[in-house]
Amino acid sequence: MTSHSRGARDMDEDDVRTRPGRSSRPRTRTRPAHADAASGLVIGVDRGRYTLRVDDVTVTAMRARELGRKSVVVGDQVAVVGDVSGGPDALARIVRIQERSSVLRRTADDDDPYERVVVANADQLVIVTALADPPPRTGFINRCLVAAYDSGIEPLLCLTKADLATPEEIIETYADLELPVVTCRRDEPPDPLAARLANRMSVLIGHSGVGKSTLVNALVPGTNRAIGVVSGIGKGRHTSTSAVALALPGGGWVIDTPGIRSFGLAHVSPSSLLASFTDLVPGADDCPPSCAHLSAADGCALDAYVAAGHAQPRRLASYRRLLESRSD
Ligand SMILES: Nc1nc2c(ncn2[C@@H]2O[C@H](COP(=O)(O)OP(=O)(O)OP(=O)(O)O)[C@@H](O)[C@H]2O)c(=O)[nH]1
Ligand SMILES: [Zn+2]
Q1: What are the φ/ψ torsions at residue 95 (nearest 5 degrees)?
Q2: Are 247 and 220 in contact (CB under 8 A)?
Q3: Can you list the residues of the chain whose pLDDT is less than 70?
Q4: Whose C-alpha lies nearest to ligand 1, atom 13?
Q5: Per-residue model confidence (pLDDT) at position 223
Q6: Annotated binding-site residue? 144
Q7: What is the pLDDT of residue 232?
Q8: How far does residue 146's CA lie from ligand 1's centre (Å)?
Q9: What does the pLDDT read at residue 180?
């Protein structure tokens, strides 16, 4: 349906979602609650106060009681009513959370039964890894990849500190995943990364000290993310723990996730991860029900599928490596 054919039909959530950024809506004689709500993007969350972008205005909001227990997270598109002027004492109310196109979850650890959504609507997960100081950890990269594939978010490997070490070895490690890679160094502008971020909603994730703040400062002039010193202790510094979305000068958003170093992956099933390996998917047709896809000895049909030449052995090895990284 096009926007012209709506007529007097009531606005529903889908209408709001497909037209983000509009603050005024056609008024009809019979309107559902808050039909005149503005659309906002949640760019920060701090102790029950939400920072939103409504058109080009930064607005502070609280949640309306009608939201119930549903959490509002950075990246959410919301409907907001009340004072959206952005004035110093202005407080708006979030009355609705639009359907999410993706969710990135974190659990405190893999045994934690509560999955916490940390970011909504991201379409790219930027895995920031230093080439040295600290050295790359493939376990971490693997876990991030599993989280990305499971959430339907495209991964991008961003290798920092290219002045300290060469990237060939780590690039070779992931050569079978069609994983895009960019390298950066602080003495050069991060143009290859900026090009990949343009007009997208990207989440940056990385261990402390990999140079994430340095990157964000270079990507978003005017931000002042604290730059730390790599140390063996590294826990004494005060760091904010909630995600924040920053507007990129060329369009798009980058979400920094201080305090989120990895993801709980207990909820990721072998079959949901397999879905990202489309070349292997048909091979699972002959697997026993709820196959763990780990070995032919347990009846997994993927080995035979690969042996018959239908897919690359290296792809199966990559898939299993990621599968096993869930419990690293
Ligand atoms: N040699 C070199 N050092 C870098 C580079 N980028 C950042 N650093 C240094 O690495 C250290 C950590 O950088 P940050 O940007 O604070 O790293 P971070 O990932 O934000 O770390 P947290 O703030 O702890 O999350 C700082 O001393 C930076 O100056 C680089 O490209 N090359
Ligand atoms: Zn199997």
Answers
A1: -110, -15
A2: yes
A3: 1-32, 107-115, 226-241
A4: 211
A5: 78
A6: no
A7: 40
A8: 25
A9: 96
- H or E element: which one contains 3? none
Helix (H) or strand (E) holding 127: strand 124-130
Atom of ligand 1 nearest to the CA of 206: 19
Q: Given this model, what pLDDT does residue 259 score?
A: 72
Quote the ipTM score: 0.97
The annotation status of 208 as a binding-site residue, yes or no, is: yes
Any ligand 1 atom below 6 A from CB of 132: no
Task: Give me the pLDDT at residue 9, please.
Answer: 39
In this structure, which residue's CA is closest to atom 25 in ligand 1? 208
Ligand 1 contact, 122 CB (< 6 A):
no
Is 214 annotated for ligand binding?
yes
What pLDDT score does 236 carry? 40
> Residue 27's pLDDT is what?
52
Q: Which atom, in ligand 1's list, is nearest to the CA of 229?
A: 27
Helices within the chain (DSSP H only) = 13-18, 138-151, 168-173, 191-197, 212-219, 270-274, 302-307, 313-325
**Cis status of the peptide bond prior to 134, with omega within 30 of 0:** yes
pLDDT at 178: 86
Instruction: Report helix, strand or coil for 152.
Output: coil
Residue 29 CA to ligand 1 centre (angstroms): 57
Question: What domains lie within the chain, and their CATH numbers?
Answer: 3-97 (2.40.50.140), 103-256 (3.40.50.300), 270-325 (no CATH)
Of 242, 201, 205, nearest to 102 by C-alpha is 201
CB burial readout 264-298, b (16+ within 10 A) else e: bbeebebeebbebbeebeebbeebeeebebeeeee
Q: For residues 320 and 292, is the Cβ–Cβ distance under 8 A?
A: no
Q: What sign for the dihedral angle of Cα 212, 215, 220, 226?
A: positive
